[in-house]
Amino acid sequence: MTQIDFYTHSPDKYHTACVLCAKAVERGLRVVVYTPDAAATDKMDWLLWSTPAIGFIPHCRGSDRLAAVTPVIVDHRADTPAHEAHDDILLNLHPEQPLFFSRFHRLIEIVGTDEGDRDVARGRFRFYRDRGYEIQTHDIGNKT
Question: Which of 25, 61, 107, 141 is the least crowded, having the fewest Cβ atoms under 10 Å away?
Answer without folding.
Answer: 141
